[in-house]
Design goal:
This protein is about 35% helix and about 10% strand. It has about 325 residues and is of the alpha/beta class. It has a 6-stranded mixed β-sheet. Helix 7 (about 215-230) links the parallel strand 4 and strand 5 (about 235-240). It is elongated.
């Protein structure tokens, strides 16, 4: 046996002690590539993936043949070429998907701390006609005097705008110009105009407001609401189905001019006539409540005749304020 003296210090017995040389440990060769032997071991039904005797790394179990396979993606030749269709055919499809014969009721929403609008249901839309002038609970129009409007949830698909940029550019004008939007109040109209931007506001055609801001917070939103609407110079109808204030038509006109003179002047500048926006505005029966018009000439008149007279006073006063 071989002896080596490797001690630097210590006793003589320790210096003369033989150095024991241990044999190398035999270890099985590890392969990270699957082989026939590995698959046969795995298929044998071993539940333990570790080989404690040989010290091998864990082997991945083989996937069974009956596993569910993911569907292969469609080839480009199998996708319907919608964008290659003629413009006339695509416009008909867009009309079916983005237009509705009913009014689209919009209510104010807050999503992810952002003020926006959302679709209202039948109950919330009918509540527009009962909110009155001082809020939801202070004053309500009698149920028998409410003008019932047939409203159902619009069955259209505005999500088609998010398919791609080409479809978005082609469908955006159709969505805003071919529908009638009904807003819960001026706050909802302000959020709507702020979110869609001036370019889309310019394509609006017909709007309807169901509640005028008469509270302390609501009055502060009437003016910015119509300031954001200044780009909508091609409106064909603005229905004020809300109680703006009590009194004669000239008083209502002064209140509306105070809040909406920016939009009135923008429409007049675009049309080349100062009073061009006056004929677009239509008053609703709600302006007759809670105090209808009085006078000898209107004592025996119907509500429609009173509304017609109020509208005449309203438009005459607006033209005077616009210096037309």
């Amino acid at each position: 046996m071989e002896y080596k003296n490797t001690s630097i210090g210590g006793t003589k017995a320790q210096a003369n002690a033989p150095l024991r040389i241990l044999p190398k440990r035999k270890r099985k060769e590890t392969s990270y590539y699957p082989s026939d032997s590995d698959e046969s071991d795995t298929e044998a039904g071993d539940t333990d993936v570790y080989d404690s005797d040989a010290g091998n790394l864990p082997q991945a179990k083989r996937v069974k043949d009956d596993a569910v396979d993911e569907p292969a993606p469609l080839l480009k030749t199998q996708i319907f070429p919608f964008t290659s269709l003629p413009a006339e055919l695509k416009n008909r499809i867009y009309d079916y998907a983005l237009t509705t014969e009913y009014e689209i009721p919009l209510v104010s929403r807050t999503i992810a701390f952002r003020r926006t609008v959302g679709l209202g249901d039948n109950d919330s839309f009918q509540a527009f006609r009962r909110r009155g002038i001082f809020g939801r609970w202070s004053y309500r129009i009698p149920r028998a005097q409410i003008v019932t409007i047939p409203v159902t949830r619009p069955s259209f698909a505005p999500r088609i705008l998010s398919l791609n940029r080409q479809i978005h550019a082609e469908t955006q004008p159709i969505l805003y110009s071919a529908n009638v939007f009904t807003f819960e109040d001026t706050k909802t109209l302000l959020a709507f105009c702020a979110n869609i931007g001036p370019k889309n506001c310019a394509t609006l055609q017909e709007l309807s407001i169901k509640h005028w801001g008469n509270t302390a917070g609501g009055r502060a939103l009437n003016f910015p609401c119509f300031a954001m609407l200044a780009s909508a110079v091609d409106l064909t109808s603005l229905n004020l189905d809300c109680h703006i204030r009590w009194g004669r038509g000239d008083r209502i006109a002064r209140q509306f001019f105070r809040d909406g003179h920016i939009w009135l002047e923008a429409v007049g500048t675009n049309k080349g006539r100062r009073d061009a926006a006056v004929d677009v505005i239509h008053l609703g029966l709600e302006n007759l409540y809670p105090y209808p018009m009085h006078g000898r000439q209107l004592a025996n008149c119907t509500q429609e005749e009173q509304l017609e007279e109020m509208t005449r006073q309203f438009r005459a006063e607006l033209r005077k304020l616009l210096r037309a």
